[in-house]
Amino acid sequence: MKLAxxxxxxxxxxxxxxxxxxxxxxxxxxxxxLQDALDEWATLSPLLQARYDALNANTVSGxxxxxxxxxxxxxxRAYQWADGSAYVNHVELVRKARGADMPESFWTDPLMYQGMxxxxxxxCDDIELCDETWGCDFEAEVAVITDDVSMAIxxxxxxxxxxxxxxxxxxxxxxxxPGELAKGFGFFQSKPASAFSPVAVTPDELGEDWQxxxxxxxxxxxxxxxxxxxxxxxxxxxxxxxxxxxxxxxxRPLGAGTIIGSGTVSNLDxxxxxxxxxxxxxxxxxxxxxxxxxFLLYGDMVSIEMHDKEGCSxxxxxxxxxxxxxxxxxxx
Length: 332
Fold this sequence. Notes:
Elements lengths: L1 E5 L6 E5 L5 E4 L7 H6 L1 H16 L7 E2 L15 E4 L3 H10 L14 E3 L12 E3 L6 E2 L2 E7 L8 H4 L3 E8 L2 E2 L3 H6 L12 E2 L3 E2 L8 E2 L2 E2 L4 E4 L2 E4 L11 H8 L10 E3 L15 H12 L12 E5 L12 E7 L8
Parallel strand pairs: 5-18, 7-20
Antiparallel strand pairs: 1-2, 1-13, 2-3, 3-4, 5-6, 8-11, 9-10, 9-18, 10-12, 14-15, 16-17, 16-19, 19-20
Helix pairs in contact: 3-7
């Protein structure tokens, strides 16, 4: 299935989207929101599947053209958003960029932080930035959404709890990170709202490209309509999604609707490019002695998308422009 949420109040209104992303149909009579569907997934998913099949067969009434501009993130807000760092090669490069050593344990025990989840950015909505000097960066990732996961679950049992997948732009404010981490208490101001793809898909939609709890397809990132990177999400992923879920659930249960991110996708093959500016800047330091690529400025446009082997978009496109934040009531 492919599911999305039309913008409606805080939690959206659930729709089903055709496999080719051209058509959609209301699903709010089955589950008004995606969170409602996840809360009762075992009962409601067969009903959603039946309508999805009818949508693709053009046998359901009420179809309308799918417009991602009308969509919020599939979960407009979530009870929990935990982002991992499964591509340890990326972690090593970014830590080098700020002069931090990387302990050997990073290769055996995943990094994870708990991000802002009370409001996500819509997939086609602007990234509002207060100050260009904060070093705004995009981070292109893959994420999964779980149903209820018990505490202390083994990674061998965790994959069955993956109900949906999405793409992510995990917005980071790079120049705020060193000062926050120096306090020894982790990210907060340096990790504002993230954005997710217009559509969330069930793993079966990926076919053979979903194996061993990894997505084995390139993730394409463009900056100002020029390709920035296209690394394969299934390559050089040190920790798969089952391992990330087990790590998150080590000391707590995870509620239905928990989002777990992969961290920035990164390949050792440098010809594949990068999924964030910080990684490219570090490579420039290593190759040229200094970074050349600036962080995002007002007017810059970021695009994140994944295509199947036939060239069809799977999740729809995250397409965002960086704009100055306007304080409410002050106008533009």
